[in-house]
Amino acid sequence: MSHHARKGFAAVAAAAALSLVAAGCAAQSSDDDDTPEGGATAAERELAAVPGFDPAAGVIKIGDILALSGPISATAKEQLVGQQIWFDKVNEQGGIAGKYKIELITEDNQYNPQLTVQAYQKIADEVVMLSGVLGSPSVKALIPLLDRTDALAVPSAQDPSFAKDPAVLPTFPSYQTNVTNAVSYLVSQDEKFKTARYCQLVMDSDWGIAVSEGVAWVTGKIGAPTGTIQKFAALDTAFTAQITALKNDNCEVVVFGGAANNLPSVVAAATQLDFQPQWIAEFIALATAFKTSDIAPYLTENMIFTGPGAKLDDESVEGIRNLLAGLGDTEITVQHVYGYMQAVATTTLLEKAVELGDLSGPGLRRAATELDSISFQGLGGDVTLGEPEERVLPRATTIYHYNPAAPSGLEAAAVGYQAPEGFDDHF
User: Fold this and answer.
1) Is residue 425, in this structure, part of any structural domain at all?
2) Which of 319, 327, 326 is nearest to 347 (CA)?
3) Cα–Cα 20 to 30 A to 50, which of 156, 178, 213, 221?
4) Containing structural domain, residue 236
5) What φ, ψ does residue 108 adopt, rounded to 5°?
6) Are 299 and 402 contacting, i.e. CB atoms less than 8 angstroms apart?
7) pTM to 2 decimal places
8) Is 48 contained in some domain?
């Protein structure tokens, strides 16, 4: 019997016992009887239909707005696969609260805030919440719309400003935290990184700003010098000028804030100019196809990556075990892990909302405040919830070395690493 089924059986049994006791006492009117026929709990009795939820159909519909087309669609779709694996498992076990199946509705935003708004307007009345919105600018564009109906979304982004926003259910460490952990890890492995010259090659966006904040914080803590910050646009494919500037500034460590569509061109320019610093990048910069590409040797020699997760073939970790089972012959990636964790956050919230008897937007926001924290089956640190102003993002990051022989090219070097240097409260 599943956990949900045992809870349901216990509730029915308790209600039945209560009714027997009441029968042996003085007669009461039906208006005074708090236990209706059939022994339903208060939450079940009050759970009403809302947009995205029809109790008669027994289905809860949720939405995910991500890049189903465009230059980053391949990796974005891996997030979607990761989400679906967990939702399928929950459905196999009976659904939310053991009775409500999850149905996922997806829309394409091409990593574009304007298209994100259009996509949300299309499905807002069809879903109870969003289990993913890809991109910090897209999440920020949606927040005013979410606030109109007290709706809620899980971000596919790690901007720390989302942590305290009641429209957002935060899940991951911030970009700043990932940078801090990565630099701290390098220092822990080799003292030379304590005095290395740190530079940046970052997207000209909120993401790039967040990366720069992380670099400034951690280099200030360890006393390392900093150098040039080179920027680029999201769809840029030519990086010779930026790499030349980085090389001329004698950069020894370069923090890269870019995506998988940018990285091959970056490596091509660095190789051509014989520029081989230590690079730090997010898992977002990787694609599995790189394992058999010309850039694989350079990545192996020069780059570490940050992200959620664990050893990607370690089946002793619950989340990895479930992902591997769901993926079958498909190679696991950290993007799969990322989406899976978003789905875990979503179902944890939905369970609490059903328990409280309200799947409306305001009900979901209330449920988020009633949750102390969310855990992620060994894939990342807990996020502390409660009232929005009390929230604390996870502080742990997994550090990966690049290894073409490892799943999707990532070999976990430090699972759940947390910088002993500490963190800025801002992120």
Assistant:
1) no
2) 319
3) 156
4) 175-307+399-417
5) -95, 130
6) yes
7) 0.89
8) no
